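Course assignment 3, question 2. Fill in each field.
Student: A.L.
Task: Predict the tertiary structure for the chain below.
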Amino acid sequence: MKIIEIAGKPSVAITNEEADVLLQFDEDTPVIAKGDLNERQQILANQLVNKNLLLRKNEDGRIIYKKRSR
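Answer field:
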């Protein structure tokens, strides 16, 4: 388990698997398409959306995930 702290918001506990998915988002890849993730990563990404750590958007008919700004 890891604890993510966001300024002005309560801390959020995430699993190690969720942390691995979250680490995929960096300066080189700020946005990841849902189709680029395997099934397990898609589930984890949706859990991170529910925990308000990722943003899910529909752009031009495809779903993308973007890390929320802190």
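Instructor remarks: The helical segments are 16-23, 39-50. The CA atoms of residues 53 and 68 lie 6 Å apart.
Grade: pending
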